[in-house]
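Support request, priority: normal
Reporter: lab tech (M.K.)
Component: structure prediction queue

Hi team, I submitted a job for Apolipoprotein C-II from Oncorhynchus tshawytscha yesterday, and the status page still shows it as pending. I've pasted the exact input below so you can check whether something in the sequence is tripping the parser. The sequence length should be 112 residues. Please let me know if I need to resubmit or if it's stuck on your end.
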Amino acid sequence: MNKLLVITVLITLLGLSAQGLRLPRQAEEGTPEEPVADVAEADGEQGTLEKLTSAFKGYYDTSISTASSWLDSIDGLKLKEKAANALSDTTVAAMTYAGILQDQVYHILYQQ
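Reply from support: The job had stalled in the queue. We restarted it manually and it finished. Here are the results:
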C-alpha cells in the first residue's frame, strides 16, 4: 500500500511538472519567425512547482553533504570496530543466558 501511495505521488508530481513546462509557440507558416526568449525570462519569475522543486533539491543536496561529512568524521573514531566488539560481547552474553533459560525450561517440563 505504501509503495502504491509513493508511486501515485511521484506520478502526480511528474505530471504537474510536465504540465508546468511551457514550450515556445511555433510560428505559423505565413508569419516570419521571431527569436523565442527563454521560458524563465518570459515568465519573469518561477512558478510554484518550480520553486518547490528547487527547494527540495536544495534540501536534498544539503542533507547529503551533511550526512557525508558526518560519515567522514565518524570514520576517524573507529566506531565500526567498537560496534563489532560490542556485538560479539552481547552475542556471547545472550547465548549464555539463552542456554540457562533452555535448561530451566527443560527441567520444568521434564521433572524427575
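The chain has a mean pLDDT of 76. Residues 32 and 112 are 106 Å apart (CA to CA). Let us know if anything else looks off. Ticket resolved.
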